[in-house]
Design brief:
This protein is of the alpha+beta class. It contains 10 helices and 6 strands. β4 and β5 form a beta hairpin. The protein starts with 12 loop residues before the first helix and ends in a 7-residue tail after the last helix.
Length: about 350
Amino acid sequence: VSTRYLACDNNYFDQLELLLSRHDLSVGVEIVDTIFQPQSLVTTQFAATVQEFLYSEIYKGKFDSVFFITVTQPFEAGLYYTVDRRLLKVTMVNLGYRVYLDHIEQIRPEEINNQATTNLNSGFAPVKIIALIPHYLAYLLAAIACLLLFIKSGYRWKESYISLLFGMIASVISLLIIVPLSQFVIDSIVLPGISSGGSIYIYSLLPSVVLAGLQILFLFAALKLVVVTGSSRGYRLRILGAFVGAGFGLVEAFYNLGWSIQPLISLVLIERTFVILIHIASGVLLGSFILAPRNKMSLIVLILFGVNLLVRYLPVYVQTAVIDVGVMYFVLGVISLSLTVYALIVSQSKPESD
């Protein structure tokens, strides 16, 4: 990979090797599975097809017999995988690089820079952005549809769009803190603990707690900023909370999409729509109780923390094959819709205040 490119760790290639080892491969086999994204701490669908078995040059005179597997989700790639379950090479044409996972030879940086990947500077970013526009629009439409459950005439208020902006800013700041912090927790505590024989369920709870806690904290902070900077009270805060949650959820969905090209209509879209709905419902509940006595506000924050923790922790059971991805999506849907029904009931009641 050219030194001008970021590291490939975010594509979790080592995890791909483990995932493929769980499947019996033959030409024509379609692989449908889930894969955990360490950086964003979410599970996404993995889809691939074994195209052929061939004797192929892996790198400059280095040949091996491999399955050639094309990946369509969560990114487009070609995998060269051996019968003895070694992933030797990954090609990602859209990103313009090749990755070798087995030791090939020491390559000088100047040699890497002369490879074909350096020819993809011009036109890459605009083309990629254009290809992702339908995905951004899909998430935007999903957020609007979820907002319509709560906002009534709130779309006419200037404060609503200021609240949306506050939610987006809070989400950006939270990601800047959560991503490196979660990676630090995983690298320094979770992985060493599991490697030394600790329970994956106990250690995996820690990054989920960090993620859930900080997300609720930043969502609350954004709504508190709406209260401090405006004069809105009562039922209006519920609607403004919905806009804060929509902005927060949209940025998270855009971030998790990253630069990967995926099928537009997929389970991933449904999953992230549910997560956006959870953020919007959370914003409504926080807006309903933000002026309430401290004990009631604390209870709502605790409930929302528990819901968010369950959503972030659920993929661990998919990774350990306790449940399959279909069950996870079903549970996520039940959680999302239950929280939404509760938020709708609360939004129809008299506002809480000190």
